[in-house]
């Protein structure tokens, strides 16, 4: 059983790329005629909403690249106490998903820089957005890419999961 676990981890680790290696991979996939879809997020405490979002992104076709926010960018976006898990672990978990072809960790607050670097055919965003409200939309459309909304309704939120769990812990301690 140990060997199988090591092989699975190695495959996931191989999907986690630097920006430079990601650009080279994307160029290779493009030369092979493959479409590139980009999804992004913090992916702190991976939950079913994340899985459905990434599955929906992969269903758009081609290779799925997932950009994971760095610890610093998650903290800036979500506040102190976040992320719950460090970026390297979040990236490894996302990379372990069969639908994901590559993962990159990025320090910026949004993915505009990565979009400019790899020019994905599709930028997939979750249902907490509309096509018109996607912050990176203009960057994607200026080179002819498109934005798609995928996943299930935003009924799942790491922030809400944490809030609910902490609330129930504190209530049980008071009892």
Give an overview of the whole structure.
The longest helix has 17 residues, at 158-174. Residues 1-10 have low confidence and may be disordered. This protein has a single domain (2-174), classed as Rossmann fold. It is an alpha/beta fold and 175 residues long. Helix content is 49%, strand content 15%. The protein is built from eight helices and five strands. It has a five-stranded parallel sheet.
Compact overview of the structure:
The chain is 49% helix and 15% strand. It has 8 helices and 5 strands.
- Name the CATH class: Alpha Beta
The count of domains is 1
Question: Which CATH architecture is right?
Answer: 3-Layer(aba) Sandwich
Query: How do the SSEs run, as a string of H and E?
Result: HHEHEHHEHEHEH
Gyration radius over CA: 17 Å
Q: N- to C-terminal separation?
A: 43 Å
Unreliable segments (pLDDT under 50, ≥5 consecutive)? 1-10
What is the general shape? globular
Question: What order do the helices and strands come in, and which of them pair?
Answer:
Layout: H1 2-15, H2 19-31, E1 36-41, H3 48-58, E2 63-69, H4 71-78, H5 87-95, E3 102-106, H6 112-118, E4 122-125, H7 137-142, E5 146-149, H8 158-174
Parallel strand pairs: 1-2, 1-4, 2-3, 4-5
Helix pairs in contact: 1-5
Give me some keywords for this one.
single chain; alpha/beta; Rossmann fold; five-stranded parallel sheet; 8 helices; 5 strands; 15% strand; globular; disordered N terminus
């Amino acid at each position: 059983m140990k060997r199988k676990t090591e092989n699975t981890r190695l495959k996931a680790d191989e999907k986690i790329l630097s920006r430079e290696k990601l650009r080279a991979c994307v160029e290779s996939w493009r030369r092979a005629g493959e479409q590139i879809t980009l999804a992004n997020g913090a992916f702190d405490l991976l939950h079913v909403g994340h899985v459905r979002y990434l599955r929906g992104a992969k269903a758009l076709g081609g290779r799925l690249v997932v950009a994971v926010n760095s610890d610093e960018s998650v903290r800036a976006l979500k506040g102190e106490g976040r992320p719950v898990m460090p970026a390297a672990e979040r990236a490894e978990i996302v990379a372990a998903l069969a639908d994901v072809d590559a993962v990159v960790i990025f320090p910026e607050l949004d993915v505009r820089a990565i979009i400019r670097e790899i020019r994905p055919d599709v930028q997939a965003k979750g249902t907490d957005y509309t096509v018109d409200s996607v912050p990176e939309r203009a960057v994607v459309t200026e080179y002819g890419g498109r934005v798609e909304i995928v996943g299930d309704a935003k009924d799942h939120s790491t922030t809400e999961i944490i809030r609910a769990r902490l609330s129930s812990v504190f209530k049980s301690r008071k009892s």
